[in-house]
User: Fold these one by one.
Assistant:
Number 1:
Amino acid sequence: DVVFSVIASHWDVLYPRYHEAGEIQLAYCGYLDERLLSFEPKPFADRNVDLGYRARKLPPYFGRLGQTKWTIGRKVDHLARSAGLRTDVVLGEGNRLIGDDWINFINDCKFTLGANSGSSLLDPRGDIQKAVKRYLKDRPEASFEEVETVCFPGLEGKHEFTAISPRVLETASLGSAQILVDGEYSGIVKPREHYLPIRADAANFSEVLEAMQDIGEMERMIKRCRETILDCKFLRYTHQAQRVLNLIQERCKNGSSRKSFRGIEEILTKYERGIGKKNKMLWAWQDTKSAVGK
């Protein structure tokens, strides 16, 4: 009955048939949980890393927008180190941080780099992805430009499907100043008010570096960003969970049988016993790992 989409626009392109007959509601790539909301951020001056970043090297079929997620890290890391900043930037699959390790990493960074989530390439049937994989199998070192020319000429950038990432929410709640590639970020955070904007090619890094030196303004920017994110109740897991449950109950009351609702209850119970239990075990393991590390 309802599709939740993390993309705020282009619904006619993403859901060409459904958008006319069904209902689409906006959702987000991630939400804040109560555990994170109760976490005490480390004071800005006590953080050991000047600038931190983690990103996967996405394949070309995510478009240039996907490429920017890792190329911006490489460029800014080089420029920041040249300027004498202490950085902790890792690109690729190695040294991935999860659970408390990720939270503690952000909490130790004065500034955190970020980029748009999403893709700038439309591939509704996966044809581009298949073509790219075939091409890279024989030419793994091929550049993005080469792959684009061969596999999807003229298609890059016709649409941009972007959304605010969980990283932006987590970084805001943990009090790290954000340096974000120019973008919309679901209209929730705004450049200079909530983050320092940087171009995709890092051409304005000197301006960003100058702004980073004004510690007083950076601490005010951190506060504005944190307050804005925490004031958005729709960015919390509890709100989204209740929203979905209310929607299910509403649909059941408007024509679905009690039998259908019992089916929904069974699914929720199965989730709690299965996935929910696994998540709790993962968090417990992370807590134990962090305690041993200390």
Number 2:
Amino acid sequence: IETELRRIPHTPFVHALFAKNDLLVGGNPQTDAFDSRLGSWASQAGLSDGAGPYAGDGGDVGANMDITVEGTTTVIRGDVRMGPVGSLTINGSPTIWGSTTPLDVEIDLPNTPYSEFEAAWKTNDNASIPATFFNSKTGGLEGKSSEVITLDGGTYFFESISIGAQASLVVKGPCKIYVTGPANLSGQGVVNETGIPANFQLYAHPYPLPPGKIQEKASVTLVGGSEAYMAVYAPERPVVINGGSDLYGAVVGGDVTVGGNPKFHYDKALDDIRTLPGYTIQRLSWRELSSPPR
């Protein structure tokens, strides 16, 4: 037998929400999917159901272990797939459009390489941030009250992020952010003016950077907003998502907890991000070879 194979680099963002461990979909959230390569979500949201407008199905959620879905007006416009030995618990009367069968195998979610974090620690654009917001001694980024922190395109490394009260983090160009400690993006959250989730990538992992510093496995906290376009990858961190606004892109966490009534709009264009080590092997074709003549 002759087989034709293709080696595909791993992509971390193939679900609206995915948990390496357990996923709790609480509150009354909604999911759907759009493609930022074709324009904004609003320009594609020409469909409507009892829960409101949406762009299309494909707003999948999943976990390598257990999933709980709650709510009375929750609408998952896609699959809900737990791990191969995980369980699905339904509380209330949520609507699930797609499959609820378990995954065949757990999805591999390797850590963002240490070398990538180290490179961001050594060479970054932190110096462009006013000292009012970035403390170079502690490595922390902090916004209080109604402060607005602006990030131009570039690479940033923080030991912690705290965007609280009515503060906001405004993204002007393509950014990659690496954080080793707690990341609280609440307040008015992220305002990604590019309208492209891939232009705000947040990678969180408790690596000992600066070297020798022990980082705790602190949580990542997110809220949505009218311009909350983001891709978050934190497979070793608990991720908490609250509020009642929109979040465009994708989120991967360790244990993921959703509260409130957020609307998740998965961006299919994120499938183009190939940042993780390793590959998936896809079989393209096969044929049975004839026996050689004797």
Number 3:
Amino acid sequence: NVFEGCSSLKELSVDKWKNLPTVKELFGTGESKLEKIEIGELYGIVSGFCRNLAKLKEFKVNEIVDPSVGDGAFGGCKSLVSFVLPKEVTAIGEKAFENTNISEFNGSAATFVGKRAFAGNTALKKFTFNNAVLTISDGVFDGCTALETVELAPTCKEIGWRSFAGCSALKKIELADKVASLGTECFAECSSLEAVDFPETVEKIGERAFRNCSSLKKIIVPETVTRIESSAFSGCSALAEITVPFIGRYKDSNEQFSIIFGQSGYALPSSLATVTVTGEGTVPDYAFSECGKIK
């Protein structure tokens, strides 16, 4: 609480940060108006280190032993635009940079990126994953409306729940050749997404995975997919052509074709003209009932 009540303090410079609490704790229950922090020597960035310092714009460390970022370390630092370390970050904890405003971040050395690590960041434009990241964590870029480019590791196997939901600037995503599962709402509300290349390793497409991807015009689901959950493509209002390996959510499901768009034929996009079914199996009764929009 050493700076409690110091409501006008805007810059903090510490030569060696050792045996000190988090920055937030230095201000006790009072509000911090810190805009800039520079630390000469620091062992590591622990959980909650600068949490909810709403005015913080710049954070810099000159020497650091452990360049990992703990859970919620900068969560809620909505003004943060500059984050500088002398080494590449090796791990990013859950909600580490949630609701910050950093536009550039090099994650290529981070072997772990936690849930909602950058969620709500409306400035981040590009992110590259390390080859060791096999699973894209839940909600990691949820609401990152400026995100244009994502480079997944070629070893990536799973896209988590709402990993890229609301990334409205994302136009294309290239899934790694080893991706097997696409989580619930993983690309929901990606309204600029024009193309998705499904590798022939994908086995499951989650519920509402591509909901309201209103720029998607063509979808080709490979025959390796064994399950397409309900409403996976709901709200894909520009879709003109789709290829699927079966009718319904899985082979011989005895369900209507429209279930992957919603609960009835009225959920089909009016633009949908062509449907191709590639796999073997039966066409159930009423499979295309209420699908009069298909040309």
